[in-house]
Amino acid sequence: MQETSLQQIFALIPSTVSCYLTSGLPMLLQTLRSMGDARIQCAFGSIDGLKLPVQTSEDDEIKNATYNGWLSEHFISSIITFSAEGVVIAARINVPGSWHGSHLASHIYTQLQLHTPADYYIVADTAFPRGISAAEMAEQMAFNCELLSYCQTAEWGMRAIQGAFGRLCLPLNITNEEACSNLIEVCL
C-alpha cells in the first residue's frame, strides 16, 4: 500500500505516516525474527462460511429458511475453501442462512476425504468440527494459536470478496434465487 493511500484512509499528514512507518517496520521485523518456525505443515488451505444479508421474503417457508436466530437476521450462506495461495478451490453457495456451516460443508468434506493425500489437511475454525477424542484434544490445544492464525487467511479471503464487491453488503433480493446465485458466482 502506498503512503498516500494510508494518508487518505486514516486522515494523516505525510510526516505522521512516515513516522509510523519508520518506527513500525523495525518492530515488525523484530517480531517476525523472534517467532519460531511454523508448526503448520501440510495445510493446503482454509475453509470458512460467508453469510450475506437478504431481504425478508413474503413466503413463510423461505422466511424461516433464511432466518438465522443467532444473528436475528435473514441470510443466505456460502462455504468457501481457499488454497494457501488465496485461490477458491471449493465452494457451496446460495443456501439458506439457517443451516449450520458444518452441514453446508458436508459435500466439501466428502471431496476432501476422497481426494486429499495422507497427512494433508484444510484448516478450519470450530464451526467445522473434526471429532477428536479427549486425549487428542490436549495435544491439539498447544497447536490452536497457530491454527487460528492460519484460519485468518480465510477471513481475509471473505473480506476481500466483500470489499471488492460492495453489493454483497446490501440485502439481496430473496425472491430471485438465480440472481443471488449468479452474483455470488461472479464474485468468486
Describe the structure.
This protein is α+β, with helices and mostly antiparallel strands. The protein is built from eight helices and five strands, in the order H-H-E-H-E-E-E-H-H-E-H-H-H. Strands 1, 2, 3, 4 and 5 form a five-stranded mixed beta sheet that branches.
Describe this structure in a few short sentences.
By secondary structure, the chain is α+β, with helices and mostly antiparallel strands. Helices cover 48% and strands 20% of the residues.
SSE topology sketch:
Elements: H1 3-10, H2 14-34, E1 43-53, H3 60-66, E2 67-68, E3 73-83, E4 88-96, H4 101-104, H5 106-115, E5 121-124, H6 134-141, H7 144-164, H8 177-187
Parallel strand pairs: 1-5
Antiparallel strand pairs: 1-3, 2-3, 3-4
Kindly provide the radius of gyration, computed on alpha-carbon positions and rounded to a whole number of angstroms. Answer: 20 Å
- Give helix % range: 40-55%
Structural class: alpha+beta
Count of DSSP strands: 5
Order of helices and strands: HHEHEEEHHEHHH
Question: What is the count of DSSP helices, taking H or I runs of 4+ residues?
Answer: 8
Strand content: 15-25%
Mean pLDDT rating: 80
List unreliable stretches of 5+ residues.
Answer: none
> Based on CA inertia axes, which overall geometry fits?
globular
Cα distance, first to last residue? 23 Å
- Main sheet: strands, sense, barrel: 5 strands, mixed
